[in-house]
Design a protein that fits this description.
Elements: H1 3-32, H2 35-51, E1 55-58, E2 63-65, H3 71-85, H4 87-113, H5 122-129, H6 132-158, H7 167-201, H8 209-243, H9 248-254
Antiparallel strand pairs: 1-2
Length: 260
């Protein structure tokens, strides 16, 4: 066996080991993380995608889609998971939520194209069926903003070395990361959908780049306000998890333990 073949075999073996390790780690995380937060997270991502089909308001300088009504919940759930389980765990749950969202959209689409004699359900079919480029834009924007939000949240929290579990640390990490993450989520989504695809597939309907930027900024401000209202509940949840030693098996593993 030549050097190239040995290197290729070694690389494949390392990749296979990595995949096996990540699979087992993810299974452990899903066993340890409280189901209520994960369920709320998944539901909020699905609702964001459905509500994004509707423009709530559009003027010369701003436009808003319905996703702004529920996006705060998904970011709050990510902040809670990141604070307690770490950014890698939060990224995995975000990927899980996006996968379930795509599966849900597929089921909705199949339901929407099934022939029916009930003409009154045309509008509902349009909502359930959704639009492929909205799903694409929503998925890309959410995953990119989720990764940035989670690692930024973790980085800011690590700066509070004296009291990383205090209210000030939790407030700073959630407020800053959520504002930036929400801004990027809205901006990426609106540019992809309403600047890139909508003019072609929606008979010329579109938003301007300025409208997208104003929407992203407005959404970030709205998200920040919701964080101010609900972050005490998030802090209380994290504190309760810590006091009850929730997910100890996973935390011990990522801190140097071994998977059984």
């Amino acid at each position: 066996m030549g050097n190239k073949e040995r290197k290729r075999t070694h690389s494949f073996t390392r990749f296979a080991v990595w995949v096996k390790k990540e699979r087992k780690e993810t299974e452990l995380l899903l066993r340890c993380i409280p189901a209520t937060v994960v369920s709320l997270f998944v539901v909020s991502v699905i609702c964001m995608n459905l509500l994004a089909n509707k423009t709530l308001f559009q003027a010369e300088w701003i436009a808003l889609d319905g996703g702004i009504l529920i996006s705060w919940l998904s970011f709050m759930c990510m902040d809670i998971i990141t604070k307690y389980f770490g950014p890698k765990a939060s990224n995995k749950i975000a990927l899980l939520a996006s996968s379930i969202n795509m599966l849900t959209c597929l089921i909705f689409y199949i339901a929407s194209i099934i022939p029916s004699n009930a003409d009154d359900y045309t509008a509902l079919n349009g909502i359930l069926g959704g639009t492929w480029f909205i799903l694409l834009g929503s998925t890309i924007a959410f995953l990119v903003s989720a990764v940035i939000n989670n690692f930024l949240n973790w980085a800011i929290g690590s700066m509070f070395r004296n009291n990383p579990d205090g209210k000030l640390a939790y407030t700073a990490r959630t407020y800053i990361s959520t504002f930036i993450g929400q801004f990027l989520d809205n901006l990426i989504f609106s540019v992809i959908v309403f600047v890139g695809f909508a003019p072609v597939f929606w008979d010329g309907f579109h938003w301007t780049v300025w409208q997208c930027t104003a929407c992203a900024l407005t959404g970030a401000v709205a998200e920040l306000l919701m964080e101010i209202i609900f972050s005490p509940f998030g802090y209380r949840i994290v504190t309760k998890w810590k006091n009850n030693h929730i997910g100890r098996e996973y935390l011990d593993y990522i801190n140097g333990g071994e998977l059984q």
